[in-house]
Amino acid sequence: MGIQKHKVVIIGGNFAGISALKELNRKHSKDLDITVIDPEPHFTWTPNIHEILSGTKDEESVEITREKLVSSLGANFLKGAVKALDSISKTLLLNDGDSLSYDACILCCGNKALKPDNAQGFTFKNAADVALIKQSLDEQLASKDRVAVTIIGGGFSGVEALGELLRHYKHNRNIELTLIDSGSRLLKSQPTVVATDISQLCEEYGVELIFEQRVQNSTNNTLTLTNGTHLHSDITIWTVGSTLPDFLNRGSAPSMEERINIDGTLQLTDSTGVFIAGDVAPFLWENHLLPKQSYYAQDMGQIAAHNVRCLLENHPLATFKPSPKPVLIAFGDLNTYMVSGNLVLASPSLAATKEALYQLGMFKLMASFPLHMRKKAALSRLLNSTKTLLIPQLNLSLPSKLLLRSRILQRGKLKDLNALIRSAYATLFP
Description:
CATH class of the largest domain: Alpha Beta
Number of domains: 3
CATH architecture of the largest domain: 3-Layer(bba) Sandwich
Number of strands: 26
């Protein structure tokens, strides 16, 4: 008789999901039957999708075929969407009508991009979304004398999207850029000095920033704001807000308003065997929700997978303990900011750090692929980055000028510098 295998299902195959899969596969155990479910065929390196707007990246360079990635890590990939989750019978119902039972389940499905019903415009959730925006923008610029582009939301996605538009179109007088946010400034979760510096760059390049306003209506290329103002917008990009996937908004699972309740082990409250990781997990850390960043998603995926193993083997579960990590915010080729606690560094040359993390991350993801595939993909990414990032940056400014544009915007404490050093070491020597 064969070994009775535990059935583990991972819903979602991006950062948290793949991290969970790698952790489950780390001991090369043969007692697990692992299935990864995702409606999209590709893993996407989401921290760099904004670069598709400037042509610095394309869809292919930020994607890896999920089926190959998942199978190389010893699991089954099922392309599909979950319709309902029954944590009592431990069963998943898929959109195609099939069902799947599990002994343990990890929800890594992320949130759904939020755009008001019937509102015009594009979401900014994956590589395909961004590629569609770029295609539409280029088509309109080729046929119109003036194209108005409006970004709704001044968070990470909105700011980095605006930066890439400026990288490619800042000298094009046929484009008009506007950003709208309901808050009083950009990047409200980050130090004020970052928002101030970016706002000054926006003023220099003629970007209109509108704060403390929401879009009430979006039809016929017209945005109506809460103060009654009407703005013409040929292309509207929604980067604000997100909502739970549909299957978590129905049945026994809580609604978005009630939020998902998880404990310190990332287990869904009152649902033994269901763990949550990544953007969909509302983990409270230092009285705030944990930032939705890929590195935290990977850490959560790893702990969730570890706890699945502990649960199946009747061992005590581990508590998830986030550690401070620096944040990199790219604003096209105009500047890049590194934030570690209260320490804030600004330099266009920091873009190389963000690019290095992308190159290293993609290489690590493909570690289980055959050597010739890894080499070919790494060489292709490196050549493309040299052509679209390194050479243009050197042409824009001599290295000496880059150094002059490097600044300490805000001095931090010793612990902030230590966190930066520890994070860099962990990235290089995991």
